[in-house]
Write a structure and sequence with these properties.
This protein is of the alpha/beta class. It is built from 17 helices and 14 strands. Helix 3 crosses helix 4 and helix 13 packs across helix 14. The structure holds one DNA strand of 7 nucleotides.
Amino acid sequence: MTVEFSELGLGDKVTEAVAAAGYTKPTDIQAQAIPHVLEKRDLIGIAQTGTGKTASFVLPMLSLLEKGRARARMPRTLILEPTRELAAQVHENFEKYGKNHRLTVALLIGGVSFEDQNKKLDRGADVLIATPGRMLDHFERGRLLLTGVDILVIDEADRMLDMGFIPDIERICSLLPARRQTLFFSATMPPEIQKLTQRFLRDPVKVEVARQNSTADTIEQLLLKVGRTPAEKRAALRDQIRAAKDLKNAIVFCNRKRDVATVARSLERHGFDAGALHGDMDQKSRTETLDRFRAGSLAILVASDVAARGLDIPAVSHVFNFDVPTHAEDYVHRIGRTGRAGRSGTAITLIGPGETKYVDAITKLIQRDIAWADAPTSPSAPTPDASQGDEAPASGRKRGRRTRGKEEKPAAEKQQTKQAEQAPRQKREPSPRQDREQAPRQQREQPRRANNDDAPASFKSEGHIPAFLLRPTGRA
DNA sequence: AAAAAAG
């Protein structure tokens, strides 16, 4: 039997907003959780992102908030999120589903000015969505009274634990009324998290949806052996992007923030439409880049694990792991950015020497082997062909005939040739002139390291960008 | 070993 949103006991305003957003059937977690939340029960929700978890608390909260009004500096509900982007995303959910309500929703995150946040607090916020640091900052400045909070949501609890937020959470809980409703969400339930639920929750209902430790079948996963140096890795990444089939947009994950910056810049300099996202960037750029990527005006997002979990980015066709994630769980989260909602996706992981040891942990966790990919022959990997100038490899000919260093991987040989059909949107046609104009800016950004390998393509004799990448229509 | 989050 299938349930409809209209049968869950949500108020009319919410149900209408949900219908207006185009949804009729709740997801598993929504169908299970919403009735309990409406009954004001405490709840433990074990669910990953992508399961519709956010709406499972946003919708019933909207219904419950219809009774009563907020007073200045006394929020009625509080939602804690581990990252600023996730907090912003929950905020968007409140805007979308709360459009028939007149509620004040305040987003308290770091990296942006206090001014707007103060205004919202003074007006009286019905809903506070916050990252712990900024929320406590407001509290210590006396802008905030937490004694009126009826509902507390702790989202992504296991990640909060990873990030060392638990002391903050404990502190915040001690500031809240003991009589309150607490909704607790976590993708996993390790013992420490289990203990927390005993401390923070009262007689909770437990709701669990299928754990996706085994990665979705809709994701084609591949491993690729690459060289040790960052330059070799970047070259391999470019080759993979160029050769990728049906690439619409992609996320490239790096383990380190400085690599995120370097890789993004490198891709840009090679003419790709790429942008960076990591936690050391100013919030404005973070938001801007993410918005552009979501809107489809940015083709390649290079990101740290800040983007690995939770972010709702629909329909990413490719995920590239520039580094092997050292925590196997992160692999699952990263590649889970593609192949969502039944769509197919491709996840390619670059394996430098010394990174193989992490691969074992991953295959063990996901309980399957991952196939080895073939390195496409391309101008940026020096081969006998490279000197022959500007032939477009779009025809697929010559590829793989003489790939070097593949002998130890017979599996790679029988992998079908990947044809580069459509290139990611190119930002610009690299012309020597433009490249020269770009140079000073890049020197400013990274004065000490001029990577020769990353010199603009048009400066290099062998690093020629194939025509098919510049003109998707191809040529005669 | 790294990322994230307060400034």
